[in-house]
Description:
mainly beta; 9 strands; globular; about 160 residues; 2 helices
Amino acid sequence: MKKLLTILFLFCSLLLSAQTVYYIDPAGVDGPSHTGSSSDPWLHLGYAATRVTTAGDKIFVKLGTYTETGRTVLYPKVSIQGASQTGCIINFTYVATSVNDACIRLYSASLEAGDQSITNLTITGSNLVATRGIWIGYRHNVDITNCTIRDFAALGVH
């Protein structure tokens, strides 16, 4: 009986830790009829971030150059991973509307664990058009690794 309970516990733990990976691709299409799967990816990071809201899920950025005109709001415990730092370039033209705003916004109303990461990307402000790159507010345990963040008019990461 003890062995059965241990196996059941391990099985349930695996189910809870399962994650879904969603994709964006320069040839993708945004819209409710598209799934964000590897074979049916979305186009924009901002659009994907509005759809990917479940803890543990990931937005995978396929190789290519992307233009984002709006803000990307990332839910807690949702991560972004690029295929390659130099091969995944996201050019933002979004102009922040306040000091607490940015192109990629990780914000919670009160302190909470973000338990998330942003990895393997080049994020630009389109030659100083966009004002702020990444803004993290009231979240901890956020990793930004292997990223180049450049050409923002005010701040890269705050």
